[in-house]
Automatic annotation (TrEMBL):
Topology of the protein relative to the lipid bilayer: Multi-pass membrane protein
InterPro entries in the cross-refs: GPCR_Rhodpsn, GPCR_Rhodpsn_7TM
Coiled-coil intervals, chain numbering: none
Domain of life (superkingdom): Eukaryota
Record protein name field: Trace amine-associated receptor 3
Keywords in alphabetical order: G-protein coupled receptor, Membrane, Receptor, Transducer, Transmembrane, Transmembrane helix
Record flagged with keyword Transmembrane helix: yes
Species in which this protein is naturally found: Biomphalaria pfeifferi
Gene3D superfamilies: Rhodopsin 7-helix transmembrane proteins
GO cellular component, one term: plasma membrane
A Pfam family matched in the record: 7tm_1
Spans through the membrane: 52-76, 138-164, 176-193, 237-258, 279-306, 326-347
Length: 364
C-alpha cells in the first residue's frame, strides 16, 4: 500500500454484526491491516462462552417468540379487516418484524450445524454473513421506518382530528407502506453487495470451507461506500429516525395534555370515543417501546463507531453486538404482548381464534 493510501483521513473501527456495516472511525488514520482485520472479525464467529449463550441460546428463543407473535399479529389483524388504515400499517409492521425474526433465527444456523460438523458450521456462518445479514438489516430498517410513520400519523390525528381520515385514505396508506419497503432498499442498495465468499482449504479441519471476502465493488470504492454506510445510512435510519419518533411522540402527549386542560374539541373528539383512546395508547406504546429498546443499541453503535479500542477487544466487540441483536429482537417480538394487553378487541379475537374451541353445533 502506498504512503498516500496509508494516510487517509478515516480508519476502521467497527463492523456491525447486525448489519455488516463496516464502520470507520472519523478521527484517526487508516491502518494498512484494517481490511484484513474486518474479514478476520467476520470469519472469527463466536469469540467467548458468554457469546455462545447469547447467540446460540437466548437469541434463537427470542427469534422464535418474534416469529410466532408476529404471525399471530398478522392473522388477527387481517381477521379484523382493513377498513381502518391503522390495521394496514400494523400488519405491515408485523410482516417486517416477522422476517426480521426469521432471518435472526437463520443467522444462528452455525450453532446447530457445528454440533455435528464444525467445518460445515464455518461455511454456514459465511453464507449467513453474505446473504442473510443484509436482509436482516433491511427488515430492521423497514420496521423502524414503520414506527416513524406511526408517530407521524398519530401527530396528524391529534393536530388535525377532523381531517386525518381524509389525509390518510386507504389508498394513500397502502402506497406509503409500499414506500416504507422500497425507500430503505434503494438507500441501502450499496450495502447489499459488500461481501461474497470463496472456497479455501482450511488446514485446521483438513477440508474446504467458505470464507467471506470483499466484492470487487466494495474493494474499488472502499472509502466511499464505508463512509456512506457509516455516516449517511446508519444515521438516517437509526439516529435521525429515533429522534423523529421521540419528537412526534412527545408532541402528541403534550398536545393531548394541553388540550385536556383547555377542554378543546380535539380532546372531546377523542374522549367521546373510547376506541380512539385505546388506539392512541396502543400506537404510542409501540413508539415508546421502540425508543426504549433501540436507543441503547444506537448509543452502543455510536460508541463503537467513534472508538478504536475495538481493534484490541474483539471478544468484547462480539458480546456487545450480540447484546445489540438481543435488544433489536426484543423490539421485534414485543408488539404482540402490547396488542393483547391494550386492545380488548385484539385479545378477544386471539382467544376466539386460538384459545377457545368452538362448540360443535348439533346436527339434526
Amino acid at each position: 500500500m502506498s504512503s498516500a493510501n496509508a494516510n487517509k483521513s478515516t480508519s476502521y473501527s467497527d463492523i456491525s454484526s447486525h448489519n455488516v456495516t463496516f464502520n470507520l472511525s472519523l478521527t484517526s488514520l487508516v491502518r494498512p491491516e484494517a481490511k484484513d482485520f474486518i474479514l478476520t472479525l467476520i470469519n472469527d464467529g463466536i469469540e467467548s462462552q458468554q457469546d455462545v449463550y447469547l447467540r446460540c441460546l437466548l437469541l434463537p428463543v427470542l427469534g422464535l417468540c418474534g416469529l410466532v407473535g408476529n404471525a399471530l399479529n398478522m392473522v388477527i389483524l387481517s381477521h379484523h379487516g382493513f377498513a381502518e388504515t391503522t390495521n394496514i400499517i400494523l400488519v405491515s409492521l408485523s410482516a417486517s418484524d416477522f422476517f426480521f425474526s426469521l432471518s435472526q433465527i437463520l443467522r444462528r444456523a452455525r450453532c446447530a450445524i457445528q454440533l455435528f460438523d464444525v467445518a460445515a458450521g464455518v461455511t454456514a456462518e459465511t453464507l449467513m454473513q453474505v446473504y442473510v445479514i443484509p436482509f436482516n438489516t433491511l427488515m430492521l430498517v423497514v420496521s423502524i421506518c414503520h414506527v416513524v410513520f406511526i408517530s407521524i400519523e398519530r401527530l396528524f390525528a391529534v393536530c388535525f382530528p377532523f381531517h386525518v381520515s381524509r389525509i390518510y385514505r386507504k389508498r394513500r396508506v397502502k402506497m406509503a407502506v409500499l414506500f416504507l419497503y422500497v425507500y430503505p432498499t434503494v438507500m441501502g442498495f450499496p450495502n447489499l453487495f459488500r461481501l461474497t465468499f470463496e472456497w479455501v482449504h482450511e488446514p485446521k479441519y483438513n477440508t474446504t470451507v467458505a470464507k467471506a471476502k470483499f466484492t470487487q465493488f466494495l474493494t474499488d470504492h472502499f472509502d466511499t461506500i464505508i463512509m456512506y454506510g457509516t455516516v449517511v445510512f446508519n444515521n438516517m435510519f437509526t439516529t435521525l429516525s429515533l429522534a423523529f419518533i421521540f419528537a412526534c411522540s412527545v408532541a402528541v402527549i403534550v398536545r393531548l395534555f394541553t388540550n385536556r386542560i383547555r377542554h378543546s374539541d380535539i380532546t372531546l373528539a377523542l374522549t367521546s370515543k373510547p376506541k380512539e383512546l385505546r388506539v392512541m395508547k396502543l400506537l404510542l406504546t409501540v413508539c415508546f417501546v421502540c425508543l426504549v429498546v433501540c436507543v441503547p443499541s444506537t448509543v452502543l453503535d455510536m460508541y463503537i463507531l467513534y472508538c478504536n479500542s475495538i481493534l484490541d477487544t474483539s471478544a468484547m466487540y462480539h458480546i456487545g453486538q450480540s447484546v445489540n441483536d438481543i435488544l433489536y429482537q426484543v423490539n421485534a417480538s414485543v408488539n404482540f404482548f402490547i396488542y393483547v394487553s391494550i386492545s380488548s378487541k385484539f385479545a378477544k379475537t386471539y382467544k376466539v381464534l386460538f384459545c377457545k374451541r368452538k362448540e360443535a353445533k348439533p346436527t339434526f
